[in-house]
Amino acid sequence: MAMNGFTAMMAIFIVFAIGDYVSSKTRALVSLMFVAAVLFLIGFQIGLFPADPETGQSMFHTSALLTAGGVLIAYLITHMGTLVGVKEFIAQWKTVVIGCASMFGIGLIMMLVAPLFIDRVWAVASAPVVAGGVVAALIMGERATELGFPEVAAFLALFVAMQGLIGFPIMSSILRRESKMLKVKFAAGERSVASASSAGEKKKLLPQLPEGIRNSPNALMAKLGIVAVIAVFLADLTAGWSIGGVSFSIHRFVMCLILGVVAKEIGFLDDNIMTKANTFGFAMAAILVVIYASLAFVSVADLIAMAYPMFICFLLGIIAMVIFSPLVGRLIGVPFYLSIAIGISCIVGFPGTFIISNEVAKSMGSSEEEQKYILDSILPKMLVAGFTTVTVGSVVMAGFMVGMF
């Protein structure tokens, strides 16, 4: 079935729209990514969506979104840096420590135990994705494809699609248990939770653009582009560096994240800059196309072959989270169930952490005051946990492990 660029782009956005609808109706229990992965797989299998194995071209290429996504990924990761509040991270240092411990445990078990059950390539590629999500999958999938393992890139796309389906019920159940403890405190007279948020608007260290252009979408994207380009340039300069005879380099996406944080802190980039520029939605769609591109040539036999390693990776990842998170939480005085919830944020991330926290508070609180108390107790920790693991930690982890194939 031939498909021109207009039709291909239309079909892709229809799939994403269906995913949005299902996600909304199930309160994000069934994620957009899962629905889209299933629809794309079915579409390619029955020939509804065109793909030519000989040329390696599919409707993703025809739509031009694949090319756009390949460029926008640097912008998106730089944008992710503007979501990170350094003061909030410092205030929630215990959450950050537990999140890092969870990722360390995942990396350790995936590197030492997973190869006993699955091929080492699958284990190495999966570790940062178990600890994160879309961006980690992009980094590892890109490297796997370069090394001649396109099936690993497809596996990672499916893995990301399944994460919410696995992680949401687990986190919801654990937070409900934590909420029972909070209800006891509330009944004993505790009514408020200390807030870590800083008051007032942060003073800008750099002079701002004139009023007429300051909030222009083009100006915001231009500033974001400047930071992204500098980050890619600096990352490329690190190629071939060595310390004590050990060669290393900083992955360009890790550098984008770092400079995004720095540029926000000094006032060059706005908070949540792509959303303010009204470009975040399109950028995410284009980047998801990059993730799903490998699904165009996946066969039923491939899917069956992926089932076992996917089960192993999920199982070992969750075991690592459940062991390392409460172990470290106990050492620094964080309750058992809350520690596990922080660790599980690896396979939930934002907005899942936000959605689940609100749902649990509403269902467990007997009054508006009690609901607010529960939400104020768990939401800040869940948001910081998601940023620590998915937004920051998994990108850094992928940048480190991409050289270990």
Q: Return the domain count.
A: 1
How far apart lie the N and C ends? 37 Å
Strand order in space, largest sheet: 1-2
Low-confidence stretches: 196-200
Strand elements, count: 4
Helix tally?
18
Q: Report the portion of residues in β strands.
A: under 5%
Rg is 21 Å
- Principal-axes geometry comes out as globular
Helix content: over 70%
Largest sheet: 2 strands, antiparallel
Order of helices and strands: HHEEHHHHHHHHHEEHHHHHHH
Estimated structural class: mainly alpha
What's a concise summary of this model?
With 405 residues, the protein is mainly alpha-helical. The protein has helices at residues 5-25, 32-45, 59-62, 65-81, 86-91, 93-112, 120-130, 134-146, 150-187, 211-214, 217-237, 252-265, 273-276, 280-292, 300-332, 336-344, 352-364, 368-401; strands at residues 51-52, 57-58, 241-243, 246-248. The radius of gyration is 21 Å and the shape is globular.
Report what the structure shows.
- The chain has 405 residues and is mostly helical.
- It has one domain (5-50, 60-191, 281-404).
- Helices cover 71% and strands 2% of the residues.
- It contains 18 helices and 4 strands.
- It has helices at 5-25, 32-45, 59-62, 65-81, 86-91, 93-112, 120-130, 134-146, 150-187, 211-214, 217-237, 252-265, 273-276, 280-292, 300-332, 336-344, 352-364, 368-401, and strands at residues 51-52, 57-58, 241-243, 246-248.
- The protein has a two-stranded antiparallel sheet. Strands 3-4 form a two-stranded antiparallel sheet.
- Helix 11 (217-237) packs across helix 12.
- 48% of the residues are buried.
